[in-house]
Every structure is written in C-alpha cells, then in structure tokens.
Amino acid sequence: MIHDNKKVKISQNQLFCLIAIYQIGTTPLFAFGAKAKQDAWIGVSISTLIGIFFVWIFLKIQKCFPNKNFIEIITTLLGKTLGIPLSFLYVMIWLYAADRNMNHLSELMKMTVLHDTPILAISTIFMILVMSTFYMGIQTFARTSEILTPIYILSLLGIFILAFLSRIVDINNILPILGDGFSPILETLNPPVTVCFPYSEMVVFLMFWKYVDPKKCISRTTYSSVAISGLVIIIAQAILILVLGVNYTSSSTIPLLDVIKLIHIGDVITNLDSFGMVLLFIGGYFKTCIFFYGSVLAFCTIFNIKKIKLWATLLAILATLYSLVFMPNYPFMLSMVAMVDSTFVLLPLFIIIPCLLLIICWLKNKIGILK
Q: What torsion, rounded to 10 degrees, do the Cα atoms 192, 194, 195, 199 define?
C-alpha cells in the first residue's frame, strides 16, 4: 500500500473541486462538433449526458471495492497474470495523458506569451511545478483546488459575461437551431473522441476515490461536480459560436483566446489575453497533476513501492523527454493525439475495459466468489 487510508483523507468539498477543475481543464480551448455547425453546442450537451453514464460505470466499480484503487481492483478481478500487464497499460496511458497536457500548454505559452523561450525550458519548468505539487502530497493538492477552483470557474463565467457586455455576441451565429436537422449532430458523436472526451477520462479518479471520507458522499458529489463542469463546457462552446461564428471557430487554433482578445469595454477592460492564458494554465496544470499522480500511484501499486518520490522523479523525466522527442510541434501533436486517443485510449481503455470489469464484478458477486 502506498498511502494509509486512515492518514490520507479527501473531503467532500475537495473532491467536488478536484473533479470540476479536472473536467473543465483545457476543454474550453477547443471547438467540438464542427460537423453540426451552429448546433455544435447541442452535440456537446448530448455528449455530456452520455458522459454522465460513463461516470455511473466508474462509480459502480468504486462501490464494489470502496477501499481499493483501480489497479488493486483490476488484479482482484482478473488475477495477477492478466491484471498486471493491463494495469501497466494504464500507467503508460496516464503518463502519456499528463505529457500530452504539459506539451499542449507549453506550446500554447510559447505561441502566445513566451515567443522567444525554448520549449524545453517551458516544459521543464512546468514539470518541476507538477513535481513540487506531487511532493507536497494529495491532501495539499486537494486543499489548493478548494481555493483555485471557485476562482477559476467564476473567472471563466466572468469572461463569458464580458463578451456579452462588449457587444461582440451575435445571436444570428447560432441560428437557425436544428436548421439542418438532427443528422449533423449525430455525426458529431463519431469519432468516439467527441463523445468520450473529457468524461471517460474520469476513470483516473478510481485511483483517488478510496481516500474520500465519508464514502457515502462520493456519488452525489461526483455527479454534481460533473454536471456543473459539463454546463460550463456547454456554455463555453455556445459562446465561441456566438462570438466567432461557425467558420472561424472551426478553423481557429485557440478559439477561446480569440474571444478573449475581442473583449473591449471602454478603455478600461481590454487586453485580457494574458489573463486568459493564466486561467487556461491553471486548468491544464490541475489536469496534468491528476494524470501524473494517477500514473505514479498505479506504478507503485503494481510493484508495491512505498517510497515513491524517486520513481516519480524518473517518470517525470521520462515524460518530459517523450514530449520533446515525439511531439516536435503543435500541429503534429494535435494530429497524433486525435489518432492515439480515438483509436487506442478513450474507447478501449477508458470505456470498454471498465464496462467489462463491472460485468465481471457483478458475475462474481452473483455466484458468490467475492465475499
């Protein structure tokens, strides 16, 4: 065991904040459902409802094993012969996800505010920040989320309100609703990345739910946090279309930042793009930390390692080097992420495997194998 459940506790409020900021993360950066054009926000709304079903699956698994993390659950259900190789896949996938977020933010920082800074320097500083958070422990990290998550969400909503006050919103950009029928919206649900992101990524919280106290609040807190973060994501997608229009939103590299640049109220509230990057950095930082923490916990659970700081440092170095070698530029990273996530990660590992584990758990309980 890596952490003693009696010593490490995550409160109900901390869990809510961690999930909310993790779910939102860098999601407002992107424009989803381009095939649905002005109805993209409807496609995102449907994805949110489907995503809540994914979360239900993860919570059912947690209820079967309230005091085990995901790796312990896998080995309990499948045995070590099948469980350890599968568990190691999750170590690599979560490390890849942390690296993907780190590289994404580093590239955005270089493109927007740190033009002359080498990407190596930005990535290294970012990973040092992640490592320092890891060394302070999950409880300190959870307390930090209690402070920053309300600020983060309220600031995002404030930006949306400022967009309306700046009179850059054109309601005609989102009309007519369902002008082309429901078929384009259904097309946005394929490939699976549109449906699965970011809700299927909640599977990583199976590494953390065991530390929540009291256990009875986990489901209620998780559902409420996912619902609120989903609403923020839906509003963000609608604002992008209302301000930028369909064509510009679908072609823009960072549509939310373009919206922020357009905000201008008198000569007082203007040039908010740096503030917007800070917000996006905070969201990406928390998401990267959770993926990295989940990867390290999974690795140390597999090999029963109690002193985890050395291995965490080695994994951090590996992630930074991987980012520099295999993600040489931003367009390449986006194309690789779309291919890897939709083919190898989101659907098979984050949806199909948990569904199979839940079925196995139910069957074993049915025939009385598990006490």
A: 110
Domains of the chain in start order, with CATH, are 12-366 (1.20.1740.10)
Please state, in angstroms and rounded to a whole number, the distance separating the CA atoms of residues 202 and 19: 8
Q: What average pLDDT does the structure give for the chain?
A: 84
C-alpha angle with apex 30: 194 to 90, nearest 5 degrees?
A: 55
Q: Which DSSP category does 348 fall into? A: I
The pLDDT, as a whole number, for residue 223 is 95
Q: How far apart are CA 256 and CA 30, in angstroms?
A: 8
| pLDDT surpasses 50 at 1 | no
Cβ neighbours, 10 Å, residue 195: 22
Q: What is the pLDDT of residues 185-231, one digit of tens each?
A: 777 766 555 666 788 889 999 999 999 988 889 999 999 999 999 99
Distance CA 190, CA 181 (A): 17
Q: Is 269 helix (H, G, I), strand (E, B) or coil?
A: strand
pLDDT for 21: 94
Task: Supply angle C-alpha 211, 217, 222, rounded to 5.
Answer: 85
